[in-house]
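Continuing from the previous page of notes. For each protein in this section, the sequence appears first, followed by its structure tokens. Read the first protein now.
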Amino acid sequence: MTASSDAPYAVCVPVGPHPLELDRLRDLVKSIAAFEPQGATIIMIDDHVQPRELDKAVSAPASMRLVSIHLERELRPKFKSKGISAAVLTGLAWIQKHTDAKFAIRLDTDSLVIGPFRQRIFEKLNGDCSLAMIGAYSRTPNGAARDWSVHRKPIRELTRLLSIRQPWRVAANYADPVRKHIRRLYARARVHEYQDGEHCLGGGYALSREFLDRVAAGGYLDDPQLWICVDIPEDVAVGMHVRAVGMRFEDQVARGDVFGVRYKGLPYPPEELLDRRYAIIHAVKNDDTHSEAEIRAYFSKKRGAADPARAS
């Protein structure tokens, strides 16, 4: 059996088109390299009109593998969604097919690694084949209850028939490959007591290998581009997949757990995040108290002081 200390793992990071995203990505990769470089595969989903070859734009130690996958924007019609669900599912499909990762982590470019995480995640996910997704599930790190009800309406609109009074529209709705795929996914999730919208908060969560394999076996990763026009958040989309394959979620946000994540800003001041032994934090770019530059500088200095040989 693979030891938790050397379990190979993968990270899925969508990278938006804004120029600042490259600088954020570089700092994120540096933070991963400072604490968990061995056996890491970083999948960077390049969401730019032209491919940027992110694996060449970012530097990392030889023990880390960098992979850049371009999300084809020209395949998209005009649409409201940002296409983030398609980006993340593309990354997860690649991880499942091309790596032996024992788990996958989903991060944003405004996430940051501030401590070791591999042993804690591996031991949590490897010991229970029913557990798929860990992070901020039912509550946030500061104990606030999470509410998924805001996602109920868009999910119901996405999965219902367009009109029962116009049979020709119903027929077209059934034939539409996007709605057909998602309706099938939703129906399977409901069999397993899916609550509309339930998920672990994006910006920092982990997924088990068992989950990736079950989702692939069910055909749900065959064509991630089906999600390119779907206007629901990617963490919500992944949550639906969790229930569709009969698996479950668990919180990992208490003191001593891995994920110190919040939708906007940080759940605690930088020094307290370290004191609570969080390893992955979000979001560093829009905190109410500290600027992004201050937060990144603080943790860059801390990881350099902790292990000068790994700092870059």
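Done with the first. The second protein uses the same format. Note its length before scrolling.
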Amino acid sequence: MPPFRPLIALTQGDPAGIGPEVLLRALNDDAVRQAARCVIIGNLAVLRRVARKHRIPMPLLAPMTLTSALESAPGPFLAEAAPCPASLALAGKPSAESGLAAAAAVKKAVEMALAGTVQAVVTTPLSKEALHRAGVPYPGHTEMIAAQCKASRPVMMMVGGGLRVALVTTHAPMAALPQRVTRRAVYETILVTHNDLRIRFGVRRPRIAVCGLNPHAGEAGLFGKEEGAAIAPAVRAAYDRGLCCQGPFPADTLFIPQRRAQFDAIVAMYHDQGTIPVKMLAFESGVNATLGLPIIRTSPDHGTAYDIVRKGVAHPGSMIAAVLLAAEMAARA
């Protein structure tokens, strides 16, 4: 019996960034072709322009059709979400037009996943500035997809270098963290992480470590009160519910090899606390997975990289890893 190859929607991302380039390079990767069948949500003219510029082999993209042939045809397929001029490709700067195109691709991919047409979604980078210029009322992928899925607690998890790190807060200013790191937010993040580790990652009995917010995890209140007021009570509540959960631990020692090996995932309080360790270990292969959704969604852990769009040097490792992780998660669904 041939191995299961899920049908996965890959969004083009911001056409002015490196999304089309890393997408095309991933489509030419043997591991990706063996692991999944892909539906590209994007624009053929944009992809062709990028392929010509960087001399990337352009795969034959079959038109997306909702027929029984889709279940067995090898792909890749193409579904256009919205008109998108080829001139946006390689532009190397955000615009309202590129933001609208990126948002439309995400919306269509999620619609397909919710309908069961595809088994997972992989999103390539978009620009928060471009979304803002386009009037899209979300700061990024996670919030946009969560709203479409009606998910109350989406959780960003960074995966790479042997680490799985879930974030209580994401793109929040440091000054806002004391108000956002609440007992409820920490508890719900632990719970979502536990559930998705079991369902999506196949971990039967997840072991979760929780970071403190302040240096030395607050040092018994000397360096901050959030650990005692919010984080420790949330950890106790999760433990009392039967979860294997410990903390809060000082973040500066939790990520060393001897400590992190004792856990299946770490819950960090804010963006850089969790993303820096992953990017240090897996800068070119890290993946952003959104937990707490009714669909599977992964993404490379880098941005649009406007400064290198014309150079043809964008590394596809993170994009390839995102597709492979999505395929692995879909196989467990």
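What the second structure shows: The chain is about 40% helix and 15% strand. The longest helix spans residues 96-114. We return to this in next week's lecture.
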